[in-house]
Design brief:
The chain is α+β, with helices and mostly antiparallel strands. It has helices spanning about 5-25, 35-45, 120-140, 145-160, and strands spanning about 50, 70-75, 75-80, 90-100, 105-115, 170, 180-185, 200-205, 205-210, 215, 225, 230-235, 235-240, 245.
């Protein structure tokens, strides 16, 4: 990405962070997943942004996706297709949002528990993905290798006791949602693509409590833990700068 696109990347990242923060603030027991999708559509429209999901039809999904937000609940961890489901207290929700603004894509995800009393197990799981994401951001410096970032993520997740799946992970972003390089959630330090200033990466640790195996719902999209265990997902888009990784999708204070 050249220097003229950096302000657009920052604007796209700020919008993603703001929308996710607003969705979390609105979510409570009784909120329907289709409401979350509709709110996302409206906020994107008002900002002049374009969804990366509506027409998305990769080989691993039953496309097109047809919605503006991934809504994964409890044992669902990735690509959750919004459907007519009202959330209840105690649901563990992961929201994943990617959009394009002025030709540049930003992508982020958050996980949280509906209601005021998350269990210690859910808190620990979400915290592990957030700490793994922080470690990845710290490792993403010019001259570092993709393997250094992957190793940082995997070290945190495995130390917390969670198996690591390598089928899906982070990736480059830019004019499209998924670009090279792929950033697995575990790897060998010193290996892989060398990071350089101007590179945009979506870093996304996700974890399942007791398995690394995924199963796909009948909807052709939603990926769940094979054992039915709880899951969590944290993601930021970062810009590699001469001084390190700048997080673009931090929610507003």
């Amino acid at each position: 990405m050249d220097a003229t696109q950096v302000p657009h990347a920052r604007a796209a990242g700020a919008l993603v962070g703001r929308i996710l923060a607003e969705l979390r603030a609105r979510t409570r027991a009784g909120t329907n997943l289709l409401e979350l999708d509709a709110w996302t559509r409206e906020m994107q429209r008002e900002a002049g942004a374009v969804s990366c999901y509506v027409d998305y039809a990769p080989s691993f999904g039953r496309g097109p996706f047809g919605h503006h937000l991934c809504t994964s609940v409890n044992d669902a961890v990735l690509h959750g297709l919004p459907h007519d489901r009202a959330l209840v207290d105690g649901d563990l929700v992961s929201l994943d949002l990617a959009l394009s603004l002025r030709g540049v894509v930003a992508d982020a995800a958050i996980s949280f528990v509906v209601g005021e009393r998350p269990t210690p197990e859910d808190t620990a799981l979400i915290d592990a993905t957030q700490r793994a994401l922080a470690a990845a951001v710290e490792a993403a410096r010019p001259g570092a290798r993709v393997g250094d970032v992957s190793h940082a993520i995997g070290t945190v997740l495995t130390a917390a006791g969670y198996p690591v799946n390598l089928d899906f992970g982070g990736h480059g972003v830019g004019s499209t949602m998924h670009q090279d390089p792929h950033v697995a959630n575990h790897g060998e330090p010193g290996r892989g693509y060398k990071l350089r200033p101007g590179l945009l990466l979506a870093l996304e640790p996700w974890a399942m409590v007791d398995t690394a195996e995924l199963v796909t719902d009948d909807d052709g999209w939603t990926l769940r833990s094979a054992t039915g265990c709880r899951t969590a997902h944290s993601e930021h888009t970062v810009l590699i700068t001469p001084g390190g990784a700048e997080v673009l999708t931090t929610p507003p204070a």
